[in-house]
Amino acid sequence: MIATSLPRRTASRLLHRASLALTLLAPAPLLAAESVAVTSPRVTATLLSSRDAVAPGERFQVALTQKLAPGWHSYWQNPGDSGEATRIEWTLPEGVNAGAIQWPAPKAIRVEPLVNFGFEDNVVLPVEISIPANAKPGETLTLSAKATWLVCEKICIPEEGAFTLDLPVAPAGTVDTAAQARIDEARAALPKPAGFTGKLTAKGEDKLALTLPSLPAGASNVHFFPVLDTLIEHAAGQPVENGVLTLTRSTAFKVGTPTTEGVLTFEEGGSKRALALSAEVEPALLQAVAAPAQAPARVTLPPPTEDLTLLLALAFAFAGGLILNLMPCVLPVLFIKALGFAQVAQASRSEVRQQGLLFLAGVLATFFVLASAVIALGAGWGFQLQSPPLVILLAVLMTLIGFNLIGAFEIGGRLQGVGDGLASRSGPVGAVMTGALAVVVATPCTAPFMGAAMGYALTQPPAAALSIFMALALGFATPVVALSFAPGLLRLLPKPGRWMIVLKQAFAFPMFATAIWLIWVATMQAGADGALAALVAILIAGFALWLIGVTRDSGRGLRAVAAAAAILLVGAASAFVIENATPSSQPTAQADADAPGVWSPARVAELQAQGKPVFVNFTAAWCITCLANDRVALSRQEVKDAFAKLGVAYLKADWTNRNAEIAATLAEYGRAGVPLYLFYPGTKGAQAEVLPQLLTPETVMSAAQRATGKEVKTATAR
Length: 718
Hints:
Blueprint: H1 2-25, E1 38-39, E2 43-49, E3 51-53, E4 59-68, E5 73-80, E6 87-91, E7 97-98, E8 107-111, E9 114-120, E10 122-130, E11 140-152, E12 156-168, E13 174-175, H2 177-188, E14 192-203, E15 207-211, E16 220-226, E17 240-241, E18 244-248, E19 259-268, E20 271-281, H3 283-290, H4 310-324, H5 331-345, H6 349-377, H7 388-405, H8 420-423, H9 428-442, H10 450-457, H11 462-484, H12 487-491, H13 498-506, H14 508-550, H15 556-580, E21 597-598, H16 601-609, E22 614-619, H17 624-634, H18 637-646, E23 649-654, H19 660-668, E24 676-680, E25 689-690, H20 697-708
Parallel strand pairs: 14-20, 21-23, 22-23
Antiparallel strand pairs: 1-2, 2-4, 3-13, 4-10, 5-9, 6-11, 7-10, 8-9, 11-12, 14-15, 15-18, 16-19, 17-18, 19-20, 22-24, 24-25
């Protein structure tokens, strides 16, 4: 008996240890209570659930959590003088509902001379989820959320993340103790109902009095955070005396309801408290909004979008498309198309016409895609160039086309229509792709009439908006199509010969220049890492094409290996670009004493209140028209002298990277993109004059004189 039991005990121990080892080696399952983290150098964000499993009819809490890097902050529902509140868009199973964000009490974060309302360090934003009573145990409910937030230090960077939680339905819900405790702690710190109602009354011309009838006598560091962003000057002090808080009325003051909401924070007995406060608004304040003071009329050139009809907008769009062909970003591609016509002009008139129609098809298709994105996303013209990876992709494409034009490589097989055909052949694929490329490289430019037409388009139903963009496309394609149907003009071209090879090679250099400019744009967006990512991408793309070309005449096995290696290299380069091409956290240095200040609506209001006229330049590094205006007009010495003599404050609104506040202002003035130039008189609350999209020194100086009511004489720049 003893002899047989020992081996059994030994075997049992061994089996138990083996099972334990396998358990330890097996990968741990992901907790249902928390999504995969979305990380950046500034924020680590997750979606946290208080339940590992949910029951039919149950209500429970989830929370968007953000761990912010030191020195960075995100924003409350009223961001203060600048910023953008965090938003969550839910995609939920049928019957599942998500409530609104339950906002913690914010902090006043001073970024001189402004004050933002937001959060630092660790942020937990709870949301209540309700499960339908007919949910069936055994099924899994997938909660999907897309969150967007703005995170700021000295600069602001928009970020976003997609989060997913898979929650099984069970007869009884399963609480995740750790997650529940974390969310409960956040909810316990939410502002409590005040238990009393405040009263908001006028106090002099520019002050407001907020009466707090039950404010504790020993309360200190009292601060009111209004939900309404047009109520008070956020950066102004808030002195309190005998339960009355004195606030500074906003220069854009507007309150349209008899009550207003906010959060009241204070310290009592060494503890911080936050109350959710509702205040009754004095009727006189509502009446003051209903009858505002007369403001100067807004002058717009070209006419404002509110004066446009659909027919006029279509005409503006067609004219803008025609003029867009003259912009420097488009001309090199059109020259290449003309060269393609010259190759076939002497051979077949029908083929030339076919080329023109295929070019038109490429233009229309690409415009349709861009217009659909602009309409669906509410984005602006050139919005895709706010993505550093796409800017780098265009830089790679321009570089490869340039090397192809000078004959550095040839692409065989099916790729020929996209590579060599795109640049110099006249095949069908090449014609369509040339049209698409012309549209892509045109997006950094804005022509006269375009701004008003596209601004009008964004205020119309989708069908009307799309028709305006298609009119722009037709105007853009008309010169090339007209040339293809003009046999008399084509017969003037010399017969094909060596001159075509020389001209084709010469066209490579505008492509290289465009690539250099795009790399500079990537550097402006993502710093030195953006430039490195662009150069690495160009190197890898060139090597991959060379690898395919050098093995073109080899055996099938070697060609397959080369193709696989090229795909792996391109994939690695793409990952490197995506990893490194993120907006830079380093502010751009402004060594020039004449460098413009940073725009914000609050800054404009502050300068106007001081009696200073304000010029605002809405621009972007990828906007060729903006850069041309800067060189031709805004950087000229006579303009700088005029600004100095008239006391004009110059502010710049940089839309190189996505900025919701700038996009909203562009939309307010009926524009779908940059450039936009505004000249505000030095009168508090006065509205701006809109300058033309193409500037001259005389245009800018005349606007400065109108804004100040003064004349100025400056020395002509040498």
